[in-house]
Specification:
eight-stranded mixed beta sheet; single chain
């Protein structure tokens, strides 16, 4: 890409306090005379009308109203991209502030290092203004908007971007799309359009940026720049509602791609120990010649094949009510189906070859999607002795562990011998754990 290429900066606006501060911090770092700022106003209150009119006086700014969909961030970003004139797109949320220029460094990644997209850190993004000020003991915004004080905020652990704690192996190469967040990011317009733009089927908060990051990573390299610092302007938000929406959107992605990458995205916080465990798990299981299950021509039955030579990613097979056979390559950690959509599911005896900390998550998910789950018995397969690094690598909770109970132990399950099969039952209802230790009044 030519170093003279201009940017179209798309900023989302919905009742954002201090929005003019956000825009001014962008104007201060424009790089060419052709750079433009496109503001997409998503059904904001009339009290912001004068503020938006004032911004229209800038020659580099154009403002458009989002009229079709309310609160659909994917739609609003795509709308801005359609109005854009330049080969570089920058997406910025209306609650982001840049105390120093960073667009030059994002652009260097595209121009000098041939990345298709680049992004950096966001600090101070967890709390509303009153809570944040109470925890800090001073006025956060008075520091943020002060040229001499804002750097002091970088040293406060409360404002830390969690991605800085991640291993470098996760923030580059094939895993970086997991951390591609569009609070602010820069992307080649050609790559953005080729990747299919933002998926507007995502609703409410969460996951639409990771979904785009996954598709962009198939176009080229994503570059995360850990030394860049933007700041979040605090505002109230419902964290639990956001988490629930994110959870739903993650399962939408799993259904969309039917890919083990998204099973892992749903079920595990990433770490180098997890990557090691996964690589060792796959390398050993893929050497085994394990016969796949025979599929009877009957709807409502789900069959699972473990990872092996014959099913390198694991495999799900089922017949739908129209007599069509469906086959998906999945580990079985997360299943793209509604709860109890199948009458029964069959898991092969070789499931016990897996590291024992991996099996409970698979059992729990099969019990979620099937009314009854069986293990097909046959001659006991030779066990694999997994070392502790593999066992501990999988001994992680789900990223959504605060939404529901995640099993990590086989003691949560009871196996009943029915002759040719073992029936899997739970020792308790995962979704209705009685909090008997609470006082009643």
């Amino acid at each position: 890409m030519d170093s003279t290429a201009s940017m179209s900066i798309i900023v989302l606006f919905h009742n954002n306090k201090h929005f003019t501060k956000c825009i001014n911090s962008i104007i201060n770092q424009l790089l060419t005379a052709e750079d433009e700022i496109i503001i997409i106003n998503d059904h904001s209150s009339d009290i912001y009308e004068n503020e938006l009119k004032a911004l229209q006086s800038y020659k580099c700014i154009r403002i458009y109203n989002s009229t079709e969909k309310t609160g659909n961030r994917s739609h609003n970003r795509n709308l801005g991209a359609k109005y854009s004139k330049n080969p570089i797109l920058v997406f910025i949320d209306g609650d982001i502030y840049f105390p120093q220029p960073i667009l030059k460094y994002l652009k260097d990644a595209l121009v000098l290092r041939n990345a298709v997209a680049s992004f950096g850190n966001v600090y101070g993004h967890k709390y509303d203004e009153i809570t944040l000020n109470s925890l800090l003991g001073f006025d956060y915004l008075s520091y943020l908007f002060n040229d001499k004080k804002w750097k002091d905020l970088l040293d406060i652990p409360l404002l830390f971007d969690f991605r800085l704690n991640k291993d470098s192996i996760l923030l580059s190469g094939e895993w970086v799309w997991n951390y591609f967040y569009t609070s602010y990011c820069m992307v080649s317009k050609t790559a953005f359009v080729t990747a299919g733009m933002f998926d507007e089927s995502f609703t409410e908060w969460g996951a639409e940026d990771v979904d785009l990051g996954f598709r962009l990573s198939r176009q080229g390299r994503l570059e995360y720049q850990k030394d860049l610092a933007a700041f979040h302007i605090p505002h109230p938000k419902n964290r639990m509602t956001n988490q629930i929406n994110n959870f739903k959107n993650m399962y939408y992605m799993l259904n969309k791609y039917k890919s083990p990458e998204f099973e892992l995205k749903i079920t595990y916080d990433k770490s180098s120990s997890l990557i090691h465990a996964l690589e060792e798990f796959l390398s050993r299981l893929r050497k085994l010649d394990i016969a796949c299950q025979e599929i009877p021509k009957q709807a409502g039955i789900l069959h699972y094949d473990v990872v092996s030579q014959n099913a390198p990613k694991g495999r799900l097979q089922f017949m739908d009510h129209n007599g069509r056979l469906h086959c998906m390559e999945l580990f079985g950690l997360a299943l793209p189906f509604s709860s109890h959509v199948f009458d029964c599911a069959y898991i092969p005896y070789e499931i016990f070859l897996y590291p024992y900390t991996l099996i409970p998550r698979i059992f729990q998910e099969f019990l979620r999607v099937s009314k009854t789950v069986y293990i097909k018995k046959h001659e006991l397969p030779k066990r694999i002795e997994w070392d502790l690094s593999v066992i501990n690598g999988f001994n992680k909770n789900s990223p959504f562990r605060d939404l529901y109970y995640v099993s990590k132990t086989l003691q949560d399950f009871c196996l009943t011998d029915l002759g040719s099969v073992l029936q899997i039952n739970t020792a308790f209802d995962f979704n209705q754990i009685e909090r008997s230790y609470l006082y009643e009044f």
